[in-house]
Amino acid sequence: MVVFGLAPAAHGANRTGRFFTGDRSGDFLFGALYRTGFSSSPVSRRAGDGLRLYGLWISAAVRCAPPKNKPTPAERDACLPYAAREFELLPCAKVVVCLGAFAWDAALRIFEVKPKPTFAHGAERTTPSGLNLLGCYHPSQQNTFTGVLTEPMLDAVLLRARELAQSEAS
Q: For the segment 148-170, what is each residue's pLDDT rounded down to a tens digit?
């Protein structure tokens, strides 16, 4: 399974060297990954802190921390081949959890899904190659502090991802 986000956060991954590490979005995400059995710890403070991921890879559509967390179309397009190559190197991945509309759109572009389905929390789409895409609201403070994304909502998407991955394996 791949958790696919927007970009490294300026004060999180850009500082620590690991996606969703050392920021509040990561705290929310790693708590869910721990509760659903994908992580050895509910927190991730820095690379090398002993955290282990189980059957999971974390990546992002954009490779640099964009100003105001809003990548331009040019930044998105410049980074897309790198994200596509990363997926090629993960042939065992059967499910991609897209955190937010930006990641959803990037995944649809990478996997050439047409027509493009609209992003929604809990949306599911299978790519032409058989990969399952799941939509999930991004665990940003803007979403978690306002209740747009709650712990049970994120846990449900991760558990659905596990179910899909296991059904593909059998």
A: 999 999 999 999 999 999 987 66
- Segment 100-108 mean pLDDT: 95
CA distances, 157 to each of 13, 88, 103, 115, 122 (Å)? 23, 24, 15, 23, 6
User: Which residue has tokens 């799941």?
Assistant: 134
State both tokens at 163.
Answer: 């179910």
Query: Looking at 22-169, which runs of residues are DSSP E strands?
Result: 57-60, 95-99, 124-126, 132-136
Asked if 7 contacts 69 with a C-beta cutoff of 8 angstroms, the reply is yes
Q: Which residues pair with 124 in a beta bridge?
A: 134
Distance CA 59, CA 61 (A): 7
CA distances from 63 to 22, 37, 53, 79, 82 (A): 17, 27, 21, 6, 8
Among 3.90.1150.10, 1.10.3470.10, 3.40.470.10, 3.40.50.300, name the CATH number for the domain at 2-169: 3.40.470.10
Phi, then psi, of 3 in degrees rounded to 5: -95, 120
- Whole-structure pTM over 0.90, yes or no? yes
User: Which residues, 6+ apart, have CB-to-CB distance to 18 below 8 Å?
Assistant: 44, 46, 47, 58
**Token pair in block for residue 83:** 């994200």
